[in-house]
Structures are given as structure tokens and as C-alpha cells.
Amino acid sequence: MVSPTFHTRNTRAYSALFGTLIISLFPHQEARFLLPCVPLLLTCFKPPRSRTFLAGWIVFNCTLGALMGIYHQGGVVPAQIHIPTLLSDSLQPSQQPPVNVSVLWWKTYSPPYWLVGDGSSTGAFSVTTHDLKGMARGDFLARTVSSVPRCTRDSNPFEFHQGLPKVKVEGGDMTLLVAPRSASFLDQFVVPDGGEDESTDVPSREIRLHKLWQYDRHVNMDDFDPGDDGLWGAVERVFGRHGLVIWLVTRPC
């Protein structure tokens, strides 16, 4: 039976309030840890029975179910699974010795390499995964620069092999970056397909980013920050620039 009014004698209410109190004793807790208390508290009230409430409840749950169940960080597992295939398609078959590939993940959930593997068991390449999580921009840039040991003057890292574009690997090392499109900080490093003339008119870059692959059903809600972008700006950036991208990282000389 649903209680008509809320009162502390209700055991469900007591359990919810006690759980909230215990969690609140520990600092740096996230609000999502309180979600298990919500159903208990809701059973302490008599719910409205109007059609408007029922319709709103259905729309809300369908919307949040699709957003959080499909799109929120939805590209992490597909990207992790696709990396070995992407490397096999991007590297020349006769590439010797095996290529050492560093894969940097930034502003995403931790890559589940413990679940789907990191693709390191092939003879053509050896993959090492680095989880940079929410590393600050300056630290992220320094870490990315240090992961590219050799610089290249050519801004086009691709060459055709039997009619297909392949990545030119110098020194046996290759760096990939997996990051959401909503990370606008990366825009300044993106190089258009085919490269560009890096003359004095083009601002110097610490790194170059060349897009190799994109998964569209990915929304990075963890980067939703109305405090910096404003409410509409955050909505436009996070939802308007949805998708998870795998970039090839090179460093100009």
C-alpha cells in the first residue's frame, strides 16, 4: 500500500533518510549515489492519477532511458572494439617491425579493456591504452605531445597503397586519441583531410589531429557545464556536437 502522506514512521522513509545521512557523512560524494533512495521516498506519497501526470511520466522515462541508456558515453565500447580493426585497415600489411600504438582516452569513461581487450595480441601492432580521464587541458596537451616521439614536416600522414589510404608510420610508433567531438579545445589542432600548407599564415600547433573514425551515438554528459558555456551554449555544444572520434596524432617539426 502507498502511504497517503509522508511521515517518519514509514519504514521506507526511515531507510531512505538514514541512507542519505550515512552517505552525507563522507565528503566528495556524487548526487547519483542518492538515486537508490528516490524510489523509497516516492512510495511514501500518494501519486497523482491524472492523465497529464501519466503522460509526462512516460515521456520523461522514455527520454531519459534513451539518453542515458543509449547515447550517454555510448561510443566507448564500440570504439574500444573497433580499434584493432581500424589499425588493421590503416596500416600497410608489410609494416615491419610491429607498430607500437599508444591510445589516449580523454574526457570519456574509462575504456573497458578489461572487458573487451585492447587489441594488443596481434603481430602487426602492439597497443597500449592510457586513460587520461578528465585531465586538465594543459596537462593533457603535455601528455599527448610526449606520446609522439617523432615530429613530421608533412601535414598529410596518409599514402595510398593499392588504391587505399594507409597511415605512414615513422620510427615504428603511432599515437591515437579517443575523445568526444564536444571537446572544443581540440578544434585548434584538427587538420583537414589531405593536410594543409603549414606556412606562416597558419598558427603553429603543438600537435596535429587527423580524424580516422567517428561513432555518432555518443553524448558526453559529463562535460555538460552551464557555468562556463551558459545553459544554451552547453546544450548546443554537448548535443549539437555529439559523437566520439578516434584521431591520429602527429607532431609538427
TrEMBL record:
It comes from Trichophyton interdigitale. The keyword Transcription does not apply. One of its GO terms (molecular function) is glycosyltransferase activity. It is found in: Endoplasmic reticulum membrane. Its main location: endoplasmic reticulum. InterPro entries: GPI_mannosylTrfase. The keyword Glycosyltransferase applies. It is a multi-pass membrane protein. Keywords: Endoplasmic reticulum, Glycosyltransferase, Membrane, Transferase, Transmembrane, Transmembrane helix. This is Mannosyltransferase. GO terms for cellular component: endoplasmic reticulum membrane.
